Amino acid sequence: MTARKTPGRRLIDELNSALPPCVVWTRIEHTTIATIEVMADRLAVLRRRTDTALADPETPPAQVAVLANATRCLEVSMHGLIKSLDPEMVGQAKSVRHQHAAMTAGMAQLADPDADSALRAYLLEQARDLRRGLRRDPAR
């Protein structure tokens, strides 16, 4: 018999499947993911309670409003945490030495007369972008 996954576990599985190959979560992101899992489970319970309150005509409107507000606040908080995750590591800058090594490797490829024109154009563009990035680097 297969155990049913909680809403939080399903969300975490989705987030993990969004990771590209050879990319891992940092320790801080693991902590954030654990918090997101708990929040998703609580959100599911809160949504059920809100639905029950809305279906019951005897529930005072103030109670429905409180439940709806709590649901919305939890959704916004969860969204903010999920948005703070960086599974593709786009926000982490590479070191100047790493950029220089990449540019040098790209220039060696450009010197190859057998490289096709599309690859050469792509590498030229990348080298220009790297040079611009190095010039803007305040450490230099």
Sheet with most strands: none
Q: How would you describe the shape?
A: elongated
Number of strands: 0
What's the helix-strand series? HHHHH
Q: Could you tell me the strand content as a percent range?
A: under 5%
**Tally of individual helices:** 5
Secondary structure category: mainly alpha
Overall structural domain count: 2
* Helical residues, percent: over 70%
What Rg, in angstroms, do the CA atoms define? 24 Å
Low-confidence stretches: 135-140
Mean pLDDT: 77
Q: Assembly state here?
A: single chain
| Ends distance | 61 Å
Give a written overview of the molecule:
This protein has 2 domains: 7-84; 96-136, no CATH class. It starts with 6 loop residues before the first helix and ends with a helix. The radius of gyration is 24 Å and the shape is elongated. Mean pLDDT is 77; it is low at 135-140. By secondary structure, it is an all-alpha fold. The chain has helices at 7-17, 27-55, 61-84, 96-110, 117-136.
Set down the secondary structure blueprint.
Blueprint: H1 7-17, H2 27-55, H3 61-84, H4 96-110, H5 117-136
Helix pairs in contact: 1-2, 2-3, 4-5
